[in-house]
Amino acid sequence: MNYQTTCLIVGGGPAGVFLGFLLARAGVKVIVVEKHADFLRDFRGDTIHPSTMQIMHELGLLDEFMPLIDFHTGTLNVNINGVSFDGPDFSHLDTKCPFVGFVPQWDLLNFLATKAKAFPTFDLRMSTRAVDVIRDDRQDVGVRNAGGRSADGRVVGVVCEHDGKTYEIRADLVVACDGRGSTIRNAMAPPPDASRNNHRVDEVGIPIDALWFRLDRPEGDDGHTQGWLREGHMLVTIPRRSHYQIALVIRKGGFDDIQKAGIEKFRDTVAKVCPILSHVCGSLESWDDVKLLSVQINHMRTWHQRGLLFIGDAAHAMSPVGGVGINLAIQDAVATANLLARPLLEKSLTDSGLAKVQARRGPPTRKMQRLQRLAHRALFSGGQQIDKPFSPPWYVRYVVRFLAPILRPKAAKWIGLGFVQEHVETPSTAVSQN
User: What is the three-class DSSP state of 320?
Assistant: First the structure.
């Protein structure tokens, strides 16, 4: 059986589920497909910034959302060689919630999905994988891909797979929110000898990777220090209610060498960099407890084609620096709903309308990526040892110390609110079944 909808969203991450909620709230018929059976995956972005909480407030969801926050703080503090320093200070931001909250991503997505399901035009399909795009080739001759189909034809839907069976979902608009390894983006790629590539992804070389793991929170720890720097090592601790989600920053491609040195040496490094964890490191029993994240920064040159739009990580993968990824994805979703909900309802969507999303969200995203690249160059470009990537030049240390009173509020605004803050403009026209 095949299906027809107004908007098909591929990917049930923050961008996809939030966009689905906003469109259904405005009365747009929407289907969201997610390849996994649930949202329960660890080591995903869970840093919720003031910009996202402001959106929750504007939607009337903030009071219900707040109990999901494991921990919140008005400042991000850093410990350098045993001495504590204050980082960005969010407490002075002019917003409803001038602090950063930490919420497990699966809790956020379950919360949003539950709210969205209350609208009759919202359809979430789990365990459903997008395998290819469907194009209307009748109007176009253009470049053809390996399968002989027009690579320029209007996208009119997606071929999906569920429980071993394939079927089609056709839509006025397909929105790809399926992450940095986007299946939809790969399906749209023309052959190597094509004269043009509208969906080219420009990669930025990043010198680091991150090793993620979890440890119990020590008794008496207040969780207010999130960064730990010692003798070239860098550790990030993200507080949860009963444990820490932790990242050890390493040189890119260095995980194999670290594994060869043994898990015991890894535990010793963690305890050395962050002494408060020394009594709980023993729970790291094997490398099965450690997950590698390959850090990327990239962006698509063009986010759209007729009938198709890319947002979130599918359009621009972000570095973990600042924890901005999930919040930028949500900002993308809000801007997309603001610009496209009415055209979708009125069946008046145009290519220029899709271009407005990139025109709105592209510039602030690129600015944030430039800021992340600057941070990478300043902090990690000189480190040569595999597990000691942190190597700021001497002048960076003095400049940062001298300019700290200016940089702290600036950094808080850039991180907490972004360079362009989105607000909910879509009407709430659909009647919730709750």
Answer: coil
